[in-house]
Write a structure and sequence with these properties.
Its main location: nucleus. Keywords: Coiled coil, DNA-binding, Homeobox, Nucleus, Transcription, Transcription regulation. It holds the Pfam family Homeodomain. The protein has 688 residues and is α+β, with helices and mostly antiparallel strands. Helix content is 35%, strand content 24%. It contains 17 helices and 22 strands. Helix 5 crosses helix 6, helix 7 packs parallel to helix 8 and helix 9 crosses helix 10. The protein is elongated, with a radius of gyration of 36 Å.
């Protein structure tokens, strides 16, 4: 509390009702002045008035005992606000038919009484503690007198302590102090009573803080302190009313800060979302287009009471943008989860930089990723309100000029990208659950097992496509420095088992003066397919099977075949997945043979289906986004006048894994990219 009372709420034996209630032995008589005399008149000495016979006797001050209703209302208001302002006193007085001065005096008297009661209570506790220490001191003295030697059983004879023993005692005191600080910090970290001692057999004991074997107690203490500092900053950023966007200045030409915030509804409850974020594999699967690879390095705390509350772990991941022009970013970071109320959670990431030899921890302020994460609030019906915050710092010199405006917006690796991806994936998962009633499966002509099998195959196709674009460590790609290849085109090669042989991947990115929506609709239109896809052999394509993955138009997995041809005329189909939202758009496809797809659609294993994915990734160019700020601190969802198109192809150049590449193979895939881009420009009437 403020003002007259300073209460230490951290004392375990402190009972708030002790001083908030009305004690019987100190019953407070609520009284106030009924006339206009000052407060000093109320405490005047009546004997002095009797000693002045020659003067006119001053009128005695009348007191008014408040009614039980007035006292009850005053007490209720006092619990909420012990220091009412003038406006509040006037409102109370009007409500209780009392003057503002009476209200003021009542609260002054009540605060004084409560302070007196509290001091009396603390004095009793201090006397009890003093008596306890005195008895303990006497007991220790008696114990020392009767101590016996463990080896001989005789009385202990005090003697001089050696230098080594003295140093050991000093070290023991330091370790005990460090242990106490860790336990104190852990109490704040996950709540409850924390101990690093082993519990007795069969007893519940205290909660225990699991410290990773790779860290000393001091380092674990620093990690906890760092993550709690990051959590506090995340909560402050979430509560700010002003925009978070940091625009570029002349002084920030080398290092560019960017802090973005986005708020939206997600079709998942808070507990399930927290579990997905704290389980590395689930997290990487949800954000597959952003997180190439992720792993948990060390679990520092598993949380408390069987929940994720207080969970802390060290993670590492590769972050990607769908373009060969943007390098993979490898990051090691701490992830901390905290429950702040019923259905209210927060998960924060903070960059980790530590030298394991001397365990020197640096502040996150010197790294390139500041505290980022999300605040999750349950809103019922299996939905949550998510506030996502991304606070990045990057060097513009490391970013290709085409992608600098995108990284200067919230779509590059900002809050819009993360939240839109989460919303899309949760919609897809919810749609899959709804199909388990077999109604939707019947409409698309697949069993539930067949639906899951084809979605699993499409998932593998996407991941393979991503790795060929960004050269992540999902597959071991080798970069080729080939001649007669454009500067913005990257050629990679790898040995493959399915299909067996040497796979060549080529990818490039370019800017096109068309909107993301228009380009996406053109690439998904089966009637226009023959205008750019060589696999169509000059024929338009028709959809034979469509599995929706959400409510958004264009979010689906489909099977395509040449229009006007039946199954006997062609043994080849095209498996394709598409989606389009605020984070960008994707069109990925791969040729598949009909017998293999029949096995998959009947619920068979899709792992043996050979895939060579190709496709397109579309991102807004960020040109109109970087200057538009909304009230949430994110960016206004205005469509750019242009977009960034990434084209990627994978081809099998030789069925022998030991074979060597030749120049003709590189020229073939390079010409394939150039020809496809030329056809897209021509179809959309875009000059070269």
């Amino acid at each position: 509390m403020n003002g007259d009372l300073d209460v230490d709420m951290s004392r375990g034996d402190f009972n708030p009702s002790f001083y908030l209630g009305r004690l019987k032995d100190d019953e407070f008589e609520s009284r106030s002045l009924c006339d206009d005399d000052s407060f000093d008149a109320m405490s005047g000495d009546e004997n002095k008035q009797e000693q002045r016979p020659n003067k006119k006797k001053k009128k005695r001050t009348r007191y008014h005992r408040h009614t039980s209703y007035q006292i009850q209302e005053l007490e209720s208001f006092f619990k909420v606000c012990p220091h009412p302002n003038e406006k509040q006193r006037l409102e109370l007085g009007k409500k209780l038919t009392l003057e503002s001065k009476q209200i003021k005096f009542w609260f002054q008297n009540r605060r004084t009484q409560m302070k007196t009661q509290l001091e009396r209570h603390e004095n009793v506790i201090l006397r009890q503690e003093n008596e306890k220490l005195r008895l303990e001191n006497s007991f220790l003295k008696e114990s020392m007198r009767g101590s016996l030697c463990i080896d001989c059983g005789g009385a202990v004879i005090p003697g001089e302590v050696s230098f080594e023993q003295h140093q050991l005692r000093i070290e023991n005191a330091k370790l005990k102090d460090e242990l106490d600080r860790i336990c104190a910090l852990a109490n704040r970290f996950i709540g409850g009573s924390i101990s690093l001692e082993q519990p007795s057999n069969g007893g519940n004991g205290s909660q225990h803080l699991p410290i990773g074997n790779g860290f000393s107690g001091g380092t674990s203490l620093m990690l906890m302190d760092l993550t709690m500092e990051a959590m506090d900053e995340l909560l402050k950023l979430a509560e700010l009313d002003n925009p978070l966007w940091s625009s570029k200045s002349e002084k920030e030409a080398i290092v560019r800060p960017a802090c973005t915030r986005e708020i939206g509804l997600v079709l998942i409850n808070s507990v399930a979302l927290v579990d997905s974020l704290m389980e590395t594999n689930k997290w990487a699967e949800i954000f597959e287009c952003i997180v190439a690879v992720a792993s948990t390095v060390e679990v520092i705390s598993n949380g408390s009471d069987g929940s994720r509350n207080g969970s802390l772990q060290l993670m590492q991941a590769e972050f990607q943008v769908m373009s060969p022009l943007v390098p993979i970013r490898q990051k090691k970071f701490l992830r901390y989860c905290k429950q702040h109320g019923d259905g209210l959670w927060a998960v924060v990431d903070v960059s980790y930089d530590i030298n394991r030899e001397n365990e020197h921890l640096k502040s996150y302020g010197g790294s390139k990723r500041f505290p980022s994460g999300c605040i999750i609030q349950d809103i019922g019906n299996g939905c949550s309100k998510v506030t996502w915050i991304e606070h990045l710092e990057y060097e513009e010199s490391h970013i290709h000029s085409l992608y600098q405006p995108l990284f200067g917006s919230s779509v590059g690796l900002g809050a819009t990208k993360w939240l839109a991806t989460l919303q899309r994936q949760c919609e897809s998962f919810t749609n899959l659950l709804s199909s388990q009633d077999h109604t939707e499966c019947f409409l698309i002509g697949l069993s539930l097992a067949g639906t899951k099998s084809i979605l699993k195959l499409a998932q593998r196709m996407k991941v393979n496509f991503y790795s060929g674009i960004t050269a992540s460590s999902v597959h071991k790609w080798e970069k080729l420095n080939a001649e007669n290849v454009g500067q913005d085109t990257r050629i990679l090669t790898r040995k493959s088992l399915e299909p067996s042989g040497i796979v060549l991947s080529a990818a490039t990115s370019l800017w096109l003066p068309v909107t993301q929506q228009r380009l996406f609709e053109f690439l998904c239109d089966g009637k226009c397919r023959n205008q750019w896809d060589i696999l169509s052999n000059g024929a338009s394509m028709e959809t034979t099977l469509l599995v929706p993955k959400g409510q958004r138009e264009g979010s689906c997995v489909s099977l395509l075949r040449a229009a006007g041809k039946d199954q006997n005329e062609s043994s080849m189909l095209i498996l394709q997945e598409t989606w389009n939202d605020a984070s960008g758009a994707l069109v990925v496809y791969a040729p598949v043979d009909i017998p293999s797809m029949n096995v998959v659609m009947s619920g068979g294993d899709s792992a043996y289906v050979a895939l060579l994915p190709s496709g397109f990734s579309i991102l807004p160019d960020g040109s109109s986004l970087s200057d538009q700020i909304n009230t949430n601190g994110g960016l206004v969802n205005q469509e750019s006048k242009g977009c960034l198109l990434t084209v990627g192809f994978q081809i099998l150049v030789n069925s022998l894994p030991s074979a060597k590449l030749n120049v003709e193979s590189v020229e073939t895939v390079n010409n394939l990219i150039a020809c496809t881009i030329h056809k897209i420009r021509a179809a959309l009437r875009i000059p070269a």
